[in-house]
Specification:
CATH architecture: Sandwich
Structural class: mainly beta
Oligomer: single chain
CATH class: Mainly Beta
Largest sheet: 9 strands, antiparallel
Distance between the termini: 35 Å
Radius of gyration: 18 Å
CATH topology: Jelly Rolls
Number of strands: 20
């Protein structure tokens, strides 16, 4: 496990200061390299400056990893994003197949979101999700090849969690939650992704899950540089003991015949027995910290997803 210096918190800006850029991970085919400044691409300067207040400062890389730049983060609960009209630029749903997903955000309101749920995290369902983008929390990466999921430690949470998330939840249809059994069929989620940033004081992010009716069943969890599988609060096996931020990897989670296996790239899978129903997949960024854990407001976790497929 590694330690890191706390994030300095979000940059401040004078009223009217132009917006900053999204943090941009490297292209998925490129190896991790030295820290680089990001630039405004993808949705275009005009769209981003309309959505994001503040400026950007580089974030320090840890152990040679590409930590990426700190974005200007809108205040939790603000509706910083918008529905992007057809032809205005790439949308997340044009990069990933979101036809069987619902999105949970680290803000309490957003254009096109489901009916307000008071102080809790906003959710976006189909059909609104087809045209939805909310920089920097849910938006195309700068090079347009993936979708960025970002959750600041002081973001809005769901009723059952103390931690914020920008995360997809598997659905069986519009407004119909998925709920399958590990004893029936072969249930598979494959993600090609990169974890691009973690909070400084508690550098932990979850980048994929199998969830049950009341709690998670399996998590793909990064703690410092250690990427591993967690099941019911127990560490059940390492995936990468020296993961470098920004490195693209593939996860395959398979639940079949009362057993779950999790493979990392071409390595032998980590597995454990599971006989349960009411299950569903989740993918995105579930930041495992908040200001009570010592992280400054505005510190954040971020994950970029380049491919996402589910089959049953």
């Amino acid at each position: 496990m590694t330690s890191a210096r706390p994030d300095p918190g979000p940059p401040t800006a004078r009223p009217g200061t132009p917006a900053g850029a999204l943090p941009t991970p490297g292209h998925p085919s490129a190896p991790p390299g030295p820290p680089r400044r990001t630039f405004l691409t993808g949705l275009g300067l005009a769209a981003l400056t309309a959505c994001l207040p503040g400026t950007i400062t580089p974030s320090p890389a840890r152990h040679g990893a590409t930590a990426g730049a700190r974005p200007a983060i809108a205040a939790p609960g603000s509706a910083a994003g918008r529905l992007i009209p057809a032809g205005a630029g790439p949308r997340p749903a044009q990069i990933l197949d979101l036809s069987t997903w619902k999105l949970t955000l680290p803000v309490t309101a957003a254009p096109g979101a489901d009916d307000s749920d008071g102080p809790w995290a906003a959710q976006v369902s189909l059909p609104a999700l087809r045209t939805f983008s909310l920089p920097p929390y849910f938006a195309p990466t700068g090079d347009g090849t993936g979708v960025q999921f970002l959750a600041p430690v002081d973001g809005a949470t769901t009723p059952g969690s103390h931690y914020p998330r920008s995360e997809l939840r598997e659905m069986a249809g519009p407004r119909v939650p998925a709920a399958w059994s590990s004893l029936v069929g072969t249930n598979t989620m494959t993600i090609r992704e990169a974890i691009t940033h973690v909070p400084g004081a508690r550098p932990q992010v979850v980048a994929g899950q199998i969830h049950g009716p009341s709690r998670y069943v399996a998590m793909i969890r990064l703690d410092g540089n250690r990427l591993y599988v967690e099941h019911d609060g127990r560490d059940v096996g390492d995936l990468d003991t020296d993961y470098q931020l920004g490195t693209v990897f593939q996860i395959r989670m398979v639940a079949a015949g009362g057993f779950v296996s999790v493979s990392y790239n071409d390595d032998a899978p980590v597995g454990f027995p599971l006989r349960a129903g009411g299950l569903y997949f989740k993918a995105g960024c579930y930041t495992q910290s908040n200001p009570r854990k010592g992280d400054q407001p505005g510190a954040y976790g971020a994950v970029s997803i380049y491919d996402l497929h589910v089959s049953h």
